[in-house]
Design the sequence.
């Protein structure tokens, strides 16, 4: 098992990034919570990792804190919750917000996350209730196509990232139109779009 990676960030296209570790490029999928803290391409970063082995692929997931990784691993233990949905949950809300949802038994907030239906939300509330006590406080090393789709730049990258997170193209277009023009970076555009989606 690969526990963490320390190397040079060579590419970042949410939700994927590449880290050069001793001349080997590791392709990693990461939640937006981790992307928000990433430095510029070329900088050194540290990420906690979790390897998912499938018959057709080995997928490495990266996290800026140990706490995020612990939540990701606990989510994978929930019935019918796979890596993609766990990544979507971590992208849609912080660890603290997720814990508050579980403690308050707030299914309405959970169903706003792409891929989370009412039954899945209720299952999360039940199965995560006893597991959240193990998540504790943060103790990690910090790391860190549609007709309406933009063609290049941060808006295009944000569109692709939201598409990968499970949002539908028309919804993405609506969310991106509502993002303030002061948001210049891909990460900031995605952050504001997800905040808008969560407030609906």
Sequence:
């Amino acid at each position: 098992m690969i526990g963490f990676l320390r190397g040079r960030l060579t590419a970042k296209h949410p939700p994927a990034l590449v880290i050069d570790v001793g001349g080997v490029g590791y392709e990693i999928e990461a939640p937006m919570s981790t992307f928000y803290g990433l430095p510029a391409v070329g900088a050194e970063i540290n990420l906690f990792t979790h390897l998912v082995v499938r018959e057709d692929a080995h997928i490495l997931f990266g996290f800026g804190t140990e706490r995020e990784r612990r939540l990701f691993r606990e989510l994978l233990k929930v019935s019918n919750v796979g890596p993609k949905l766990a990544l979507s949950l971590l992208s849609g809300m912080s660890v603290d917000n997720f814990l508050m949802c579980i403690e308050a038994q707030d299914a309405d907030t959970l169903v706003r996350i792409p891929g989370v239906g009412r039954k899945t939300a209720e299952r999360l509330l039940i199965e995560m209730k006893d597991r959240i006590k193990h998540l504790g406080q943060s103790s990690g090393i910090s790391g860190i196509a549609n007709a309406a789709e933009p063609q290049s730049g941060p808006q295009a990258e944000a569109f692709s990232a939201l598409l990968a997170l499970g949002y539908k193209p028309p919804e993405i277009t609506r969310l991106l139109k509502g993002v303030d023009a002061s948001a210049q970076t891909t990460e900031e555009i995605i952050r504001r779009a997800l905040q808008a989606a969560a407030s609906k």
In short: The domain at 153-199 is CATH 1.10.8.10 (Helicase, Ruva Protein; domain 3). The chain is about 40% helix and 20% strand. Confidence is low (pLDDT under 50) at residues 137-152. The beta strands are 4-13, 16-21, 24-29, 44-53, 58-63.
